[in-house]
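Feature request, filed as a ticket because there's no other form

It would be nice if the structure record came with a short human-readable summary line next to the tokens. Right now we just get the raw output. Example of a typical job, pasted below so the devs can see what we mean:
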Amino acid sequence: MSSWSGESSWAGEIRGTSDWFPNSYRFATKEEAEHFIQQTREQWSPPEFVKATRVLQSDQPVNARWNAKKKDAIRLGAADPDDLPAAGEDDENENLLPHDEEALPTRAREAVDTYRRQRRKTRSALG
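Raw output as currently delivered:
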């Protein structure tokens, strides 16, 4: 671990048959880390692999928050797709991208296309 910065975060770990498995999520509160590690435990496969869980204080910076409604961890600094406008799908959002999308680098165009596909899929699933 790095030297103590005076700030702390909370991290959950899962113990398998013999070792503890850390992860990179760091939460501001112990409760958030507990919710996250419990959710992770419930999703682990095979379930009998998980022998125990624990939450430890860390000197690493907070990089996530727990969304209780979605029962999911949200990385801080990363955009939540539900909070972003659907670029290109609504007239009012057309100005969010350059008018000449061909001028975008290939990776940026691919990212925009992927985002649009995911947004359409989400909208159709919601009805």
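Something like this underneath would help us a lot:
Helices lie at 30-43, 106-126.
The mean pLDDT is 76.
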